[in-house]
Amino acid sequence: MNRSHPATDLTTVLDGDHRELDRLCTELELGQGSPENRKDLADHLISALVRHTVAEEPYLDGGGDLAEADGLMRELEGAGPQEPRFERLLGGLIRAVRRHGRDEGPAAVRRIRLGDSAARREELGREVLDARKAAARLPHPGLADRMPQADQLRPGPGFVDRVRAAFVPSAGGTGSPG
């Protein structure tokens, strides 16, 4: 472990996200597997990207690659793997993720490193990791009474919103980054 950037430093968490997103994009670009497997992997990319976006967007200027990716994810969640538009949308999402990982993401990490003390980055990183752990256990507030917990983060229409809701504190929450 690097002493200047412990594993819970927010910049380390975000850099790790960028590496994981890059790995998922590479796996999708290889084009291997059945259409159903590619859809599952695309859904995994969407989940990882939403989780990352919730943690990083307070440090971005708005708009940009993650905003473009959000629109593409919402279109992609309703596209079946056999539909011609699936690969087109997936390609657009991968390009937006790649641009983010090359430009916006590293710039946000630099701003955090310059703007926050090591202690504050550690605190923010712990908050993000704690929120991610809690999100895996907590039901979506709007669905808790209508959908079994095991089905709440299942892909399909509304998937992006359900994943985002799992990582964003509720209106009565603490307001810490997710």
Please describe the topology of this protein:
Blueprint: H1 10-29, H2 35-56, H3 64-77, H4 84-115, H5 118-135, H6 159-167
Describe this structure in words.
Helix 2 (35-56) packs antiparallel against helix 3. Helices cover 65% and strands 0% of the residues. By secondary structure, the chain is mainly alpha-helical. The radius of gyration is 16 Å and the shape is elongated. It is built from six helices and no strands. Mean pLDDT is 80; it is low at 138-154 and 170-178.
What is the H/E order?
HHHHHH
The percent of residues in helical segments reads 55-70%
Distance between the termini: 24 Å
Mean pLDDT equals: 80
* Count of runs of 4 or more consecutive helical residues: 6
From the spread of the alpha carbons, the general shape counts as elongated
Q: What gyration radius follows from the Cα positions, in whole Å?
A: 16 Å
Key attributes of the depicted protein:
178 residues, mainly alpha, 6 helices, elongated, disordered C terminus
Compose a concise summary of this entry.
The chain has 178 residues and is mostly helical.
